[in-house]
Fold:
Amino acid sequence: MKKTAIALAVCTAGFSPFLYAQDTSSNEVITVIGEPLTLTNNAPVSASTNTEADYGDQLATLPGVTISRNGPVTGLIQYRGLYGDRVGVTIDGVDIAGAGPNAMDSPLSHVLPEPGLQAVLYRGIVPVSAGVETLGGKLEIRADASHLFSEANGLQFNASASMFSPGDAQQYQANAFYGTDNGFFSGAFTHQQRDEREAGSNDAGSSITIPNSQYQRNGGKLRAGYSWGKHSLDVSYQTLNTNDSGTAALAMDIAFIDAAWYRLGYQYQADDERMLKVSVFGNSNQHAMDNFSQRAVSMASMARQNDADSLGQGVEASYVTPALDGELEVGFSHLHSRNNSVITNPNNSAFYINNYTDITRDTFSGFTEWHRVTDTADYLLGLRYTQVDMDADAIGSNMVMMNDAVAMLASNFNNAKRSETYNMLDAAATIQIPVSDTVTVFTGISQKNRAPNYYERYTWLPLGITGGMADGFNYIGNLELDNETARQFEFGITYSKNDWTVSPRLYYQDIEDYIAGTPSSNTAAIMFSTMMGSDTPFQWTNTDAIIKGLDVTISGKLLNNLLLTSTASVNHGNRDDIDDALFRIAPEQLTTRIEWQSELMQSPLMLSVTSHLVGAQNHTSALQSESSTAGYGLIHLGARWQLSQSFSLSAQLQNAFDKYYTAHTAGVNRVSDADVAVGDKLPGTGREWQVSASYRF
Structure:
C-alpha cells in the first residue's frame, strides 16, 4: 500500500530548539502518515534535544496527542482522548508486553535512538494493515531497514552529550554505523540520569521540588542487515536497564526494569509491485517496584515489593500484489504474551500475594486491504479478523488463612472459568478526493475492537492497578467482560497554497462496551478494601462512551527564513451509560512555533520560540473524584549553531518565565513528606536550561 509520509515541522514544537534539514546525523524523525499531500520535507531531530527521558516530549505536539505522566520514564500516549492499551505502539515492529500492571514500563520507555529512527503516527482512522486492536490509534517508532540499506558505504559515527539544570541531569548518546554494498552493521548506546526536578515559582515565589522525579537508565542496541538479489534480511537486539526511578503518581516506585527485545525481519521483493515481508520478534521484561526504597513508609508492616515479569513472542507476515486496478495486501500475525506478579513484604517473609500467575494472552489475526489511486480519488478499504484467547492459573496468598474476605475472593477466582475467547471484526474505509489544485477532502469510517487486557480480567484482590490511570481507587477484575467496539467517523480538509498548508479534522467515536470502573457490589471486595482504609473499590465493567473533537495542523513561511508551524486540538469524552466525563482527558491546546534561520560567523544558526497554550479542564469525572485544572501558557526558547559539518551546539530554555502550572493529564502525588501534598496534582517543570554538543564523522 502506498503511503504518503508527511514530516511536520510542528512535531518538534515545544521540545526541540531547531530544525535543520541538512543535518543528516540527526536520529529521530517525527512523521505523520495518512495525509494526501506532503507538507514539508522530513524534519530531523537531534537525539540531544529531548527533555524527557522516554522521548515522550517529541510526540506531545502531534495533532491530537498528549502524554499522560506518572513519572519521568512512564509516559502514556493519549490520542484523541484514548490512552493505554487502546493506542497501539510498536518499537521497530515489536509489540512490547510490559511487565508492570501500572504501565511503569510503558512502550515509550523502551525507545533507544539510532540513526534513521522515526515516530510514525497514523492520523485518525488507522488502516487495518497497521496492526491489531488499534481502537485508539497507532504509533510506530522505527528505523526502516530500507533507509539503513541505502546509507553510504563506510563508517559513520555520531555522539552527543547534554546537561540539564535544575536536577543535575546528564545524557550521553553514541551511534556507530558501517555500510557495505549489500549490508550494514550498527550499534547504539545511551546513558541518562537525573536528580529531582523543580516546578515553576508558585504564588509565594519559592521553588517546589517535584517529588520522586529522578531517573537513571542505560541501554544498548545492535542491528545488522544483508541483502542479496531480491532478498534482504535484518536482525536487531536491544537491552535497556532502568534503575531507581520515581513514579510519584503511583503507589510504588521503580527499583529496576531489565528489558530486552529482538527482531528478525525478511523481505522478498519479487518485482516493483509484489513484495513479501516476514517478521519474528520477542521481548522479555523483569521488573521490581516497591514503596519503601525511594519514599517513606508509615510502618514496617506496610512495606511492599512487587516482582513482575512478562514475555512476548510474535510473528507477522504480509504480501502485496496488484489487484482490481489497485494494490492488495494480505497478512497474518500471532502474538503470545505471558505475565506474572508476586507481592511481598521484605520485613515479613511469610507475607505474599500471588497477584497474577502465568496469565497468557494469544492473539491470532488476519487482514486484507485494497488500495487504489486514480486521478479523482484515493480509496482504501480493509477488513481484519482477530481472535484473542486468554487464560490464567490459580492464585493464592498467606492472608487466605487469616482473612475471610481474602479467602472468599481467592476461592471464587480459583473456582471460576478463567479462560475466554474473543472474536472481533475490524473494518476501515477512507477516501481522499482532490477537489481542486489546493483543496483535498478526506472522509472515513471504521469499526475497531479491543479485547480486555490481563489486569482488567484477572485482578482478583482489590488493588490500585489501573494500567497507569492512577485515579487513587482500588480495582478488581471482571471475568465476564466483553470486548470494546468503537465506530468512528472522520471528516477533514487539507488546503495547500503558496508554502502554506492547513489541515483540520473532525471526528466522532461511539464506543460500545467501553471498559471503565464502576463501584463494586462484591461484598468480599468491599470488606477487604474497607479493612485497608480505602474507599469502596471499583470493578472493571462494560459501559458506553462517546469521544468527539477536532484537531488542526498549520504550517507555512512568514518570510523565506521565518517558518511558522502550529497544532490545535479539542476533544470531549463522556460516559454514555451515565452522565459523567471520561477520566484524565486532555483539555484544548494550541502550540505555535516560529523559527528563524540565519548565520553566525558564516555558520548556520537557527533560533526558535514556541508558545504552548492549554485551556482549563472543568469537564471532569465526578465518579472518580477528579478535580478541575486551570489553563496556562508556556514559552520555550531554543537555538542551534552548526559550527561545521561535524560539530554543532544547541541550547534550549523550557518554560522561560518559570510558570507554575499543573497539566490535567498529570497524576496526583502519592509521596508523603514532600513539597506537594498527597492527593494534589503533580506540577509541571519550571524553568529549565539544557546545553548539548554533538559530533559526527
In short: The mean pLDDT is 90.
